[in-house]
Amino acid sequence: MDRTVDWAGELDGAIVIVDQCALPGSYRTSRIDTVDELIDAIQRLAVRGAPALGAAGALGVVLAARDADSASARRQAERIASARPTAVNLRWGVERALAALPHGAEAVLAEGRALLAEDERVNRAASANAAELVLRRCGRQPLRLLTHCNTGALATVAWGTALGVVWHLHAEGLVEEVLADETRPLLQGARLTAWELARAGVPYRVLPDSAAASAMAAGLVDCVLVGADRIAANGDVANKIGTYPLAISAARHGIPFVVVAPSSTVDETLASGSGIEIEQRAADEVTHSGGVRVTPEGARAYNPAFDVTPAELVTAVVTEHGVRSPEKTVRAQL
């Protein structure tokens, strides 16, 4: 598979993304030449996942910088950074690229390309750390793993975060099965995670989000693996809607609940998850399915894209540096 997010050509080139709205029915890439096109792709989730958004944000600054003066480029960059409010990596990527702006558009492109190369290294390291932790907690045996949303290569530039743990364990023959939450209402688990698992030859089943607790009660889950869109300083975790009830169920059944993310997803400026802005999505994502209305006319919807899991329900937050605590990263816990 190509990189989920990449830059094609030199400074006059373009962003190229894997269009995730087309999967699993069709694998195709889309070329993005303007800031408006990038914002549209971000908001309709053609590119999604916190690390992938960070990369897209950085490359978006290239689009803004090459055709405008510094002040205009910064205004366009702010539009990109604000396209989705919850995932901290989007603004992080934009700001990282903006730091190179005084040195010209070529320098911005070089920084964006550096971020692309770094993303896979960082996520491989974070998922390797998490795989080691999971084996220490669950034993070195074929494991039954439950995931939510999509945290594989499609959510990053390449490789993945929580699903990257699956890739490491599968390579050692240590995955019995993955249960992939369908992840309503946009079905990122059923559409994207299942697609990645099938391509990798990993045994899996898709289950309704509401069946996850029953799967735990039935003894079908050894560990829950999720990613993150923003992690507060105290360890509270914002992730795809439905993550919080998974953590509650895992705690009830004594199952490890492990969050895997790059350190760029940690927002040390927020003391707790109560300060995380939660994106509210359009009602028709709930009231319609496949373009067909499934609710009565006039039905309203509550459709937050994310929820916040309190730190006390999280077994570990694992980054490329090791297991993170609110005070420090503790490699010894691995």
Automatic annotation (TrEMBL):
<comment type="similarity">
    <text>Belongs to the EIF-2B alpha/beta/delta subunits family. MtnA subfamily.</text>
</comment>
<comment type="function">
    <text>Catalyzes the interconversion of methylthioribose-1-phosphate (MTR-1-P) into methylthioribulose-1-phosphate (MTRu-1-P).</text>
</comment>
<keyword id="KW-0028">Amino-acid biosynthesis</keyword>
<dbReference type="InterPro" id="IPR027363">
    <property type="entry name" value="M1Pi_N"/>
</dbReference>
<keyword id="KW-0413">Isomerase</keyword>
<feature type="binding site">
    <location>
        <position position="188"/>
    </location>
    <ligand>
        <name>substrate</name>
    </ligand>
</feature>
<feature type="binding site">
    <location>
        <begin position="239"/>
        <end position="240"/>
    </location>
    <ligand>
        <name>substrate</name>
    </ligand>
</feature>
<dbReference type="GO" id="GO:0019509">
    <property type="term" value="P:L-methionine salvage from methylthioadenosine"/>
</dbReference>
<dbReference type="InterPro" id="IPR037171">
    <property type="entry name" value="NagB/RpiA_transferase-like"/>
</dbReference>
<dbReference type="InterPro" id="IPR042529">
    <property type="entry name" value="IF_2B-like_C"/>
</dbReference>
<dbReference type="InterPro" id="IPR011559">
    <property type="entry name" value="Initiation_fac_2B_a/b/d"/>
</dbReference>
<dbReference type="InterPro" id="IPR005251">
    <property type="entry name" value="IF-M1Pi"/>
</dbReference>
<feature type="active site" description="Proton donor">
    <location>
        <position position="229"/>
    </location>
</feature>
<comment type="pathway">
    <text>Amino-acid biosynthesis; L-methionine biosynthesis via salvage pathway; L-methionine from S-methyl-5-thio-alpha-D-ribose 1-phosphate: step 1/6.</text>
</comment>
<dbReference type="Pfam" id="PF01008">
    <property type="entry name" value="IF-2B"/>
</dbReference>
<feature type="binding site">
    <location>
        <begin position="48"/>
        <end position="50"/>
    </location>
    <ligand>
        <name>substrate</name>
    </ligand>
</feature>
<keyword id="KW-0486">Methionine biosynthesis</keyword>
<dbReference type="GO" id="GO:0046523">
    <property type="term" value="F:S-methyl-5-thioribose-1-phosphate isomerase activity"/>
</dbReference>
<feature type="binding site">
    <location>
        <position position="84"/>
    </location>
    <ligand>
        <name>substrate</name>
    </ligand>
</feature>
<feature type="site" description="Transition state stabilizer">
    <location>
        <position position="149"/>
    </location>
</feature>
<protein>
    <recommendedName>
        <fullName>Methylthioribose-1-phosphate isomerase</fullName>
        <ecNumber>5.3.1.23</ecNumber>
    </recommendedName>
</protein>
<dbReference type="InterPro" id="IPR000649">
    <property type="entry name" value="IF-2B-related"/>
</dbReference>
